[in-house]
Each structure stands twice: as structure tokens, then as C-alpha cells.
């Protein structure tokens, strides 16, 4: 960029020197800074500090995960927040279910009676419910990852 050089008044070009001979003319300049990204906070983002804003922010996160507009760090975080507990819950449910299935088969083998059968069946159904909850927790990050990968392949 060139340095600022003040303009000398030209008596023939303007009448400033004629009326104000001892003053320099005022040079007006406006510096407009370049636009530097979005303003913060973004007015389009919901305010998560109030109850309705929290609901709206959670909906925005789930919508972004579902439609693959979420960045990769959000997808990885969803695996950590939802995927790991889902795997943990599913693993506990499988171990618990196998133990109850063993007890159930033992009850039939040694004819220990119906009370053992009903309690083991109830525990087996409970472990099936826990496994279902763990699987449902895994569906969200699995779907978001698949959609993100499919969108990335479609761009190429």
C-alpha cells in the first residue's frame, strides 16, 4: 500500500487557498475494515441459557446429526457420548442375559420348579430390554456417521 501524501492546495483548481490561506484543507478518509467472518454470537443460533433455547439447541444438534450437516468433531463426540454408553449397556445386558439363560436352562434340566423359571424369564426379558436400549443409543451415532460418509462420497 502506498503512503498517505497530503495534497497541496492548488490556487487555480479550488478557492480554498484564496479564502483560507493559512490553513490546510481537511482530508477526509474512511477506512472500511474487511469483513472478518460471522459476527459472534450468531443471531441464528438458539440461546441455550433459557429453557426453550435449550430445547431448540438440542433439536438443532439432532437435526444436524441426522442430515449430515454436522462437522466431524460433532459426529465423533456423539460416538463418545452416545456410542460408548450404548456399547457398555449392550455388553452388560448380553452378559446378564447369558447368565439368566444358563440359570433358566439349569432349572429345566434339574427340575427346580416354576419359581426359578419365572424369575429367570423375567430377568432374561429385563436383559433384553437393556440390550434394546443400548442398541437404540447406538443408532443415532451410527446413522449420523453413515449419512456423513454417504454425503462425502456423493460430493466426490
The count of helical stretches stands at 4
The low-pLDDT segments are: none
Shape: rod-shaped
Q: For the CA atoms, what is the radius of gyration?
A: 35 Å
The termini sit apart by: 41 Å
Share of residues in helices: 55-70%
User: Structural class given helices, strands, pairing?
Assistant: mainly alpha
Mean pLDDT: 76
Major sheet description: none
In total, the number of strands is: 0
Proportion of beta-strand residues: under 5%
The SSE order reads HHHH
Task: Describe this structure as you would to a colleague.
The chain has 156 residues and is an all-alpha fold. 65% of the residues lie in helices and 0% in strands. It has a domain at 71-156. It is built from 4 helices and no strands. Helix 3 (72-110) packs antiparallel against helix 4. The relative contact order is 0.10.
Give a short synopsis of this structure:
The chain has 156 residues and is mainly alpha-helical. It has a domain at 71-156.
Any descriptors?
4 helices, 65% helix, 0% strand, mainly alpha, 156 residues
Can you lay out the helices and strands and say which pair or pack?
Blueprint: H1 16-19, H2 51-67, H3 72-110, H4 114-155
Helix pairs in contact: 3-4
Amino acid at each position: 500500500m502506498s503512503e498517505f501524501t497530503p495534497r497541496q492546495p492548488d490556487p487555480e483548481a479550488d478557492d480554498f487557498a484564496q479564502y483560507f490561506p493559512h490553513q490546510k484543507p481537511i482530508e477526509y478518509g474512511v477506512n472500511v475494515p474487511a469483513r472478518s467472518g460471522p459476527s459472534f454470537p450468531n443471531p441464528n443460533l438458539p440461546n441455550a441459557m433459557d429453557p426453550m433455547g435449550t430445547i431448540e439447541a438440542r433439536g438443532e444438534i439432532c437435526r444436524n446429526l441426522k442430515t449430515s450437516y454436522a462437522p466431524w468433531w460433532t459426529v465423533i463426540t456423539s460416538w463418545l457420548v452416545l456410542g460408548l454408553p450404548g456399547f457398555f449397556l449392550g455388553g452388560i445386558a448380553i452378559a446378564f442375559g447369558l447368565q439368566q439363560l444358563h440359570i433358566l436352562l439349569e432349572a429345566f434340566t434339574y427340575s427346580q420348579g416354576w419359581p426359578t423359571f419365572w424369575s429367570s424369564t423375567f430377568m432374561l426379558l429385563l436383559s433384553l430390554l437393556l440390550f434394546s436400549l443400548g442398541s437404540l443409543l447406538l443408532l443415532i451415532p451410527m446413522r449420523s456417521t453413515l449419512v456423513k460418509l454417504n454425503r462425502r462420497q456423493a460430493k466426490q
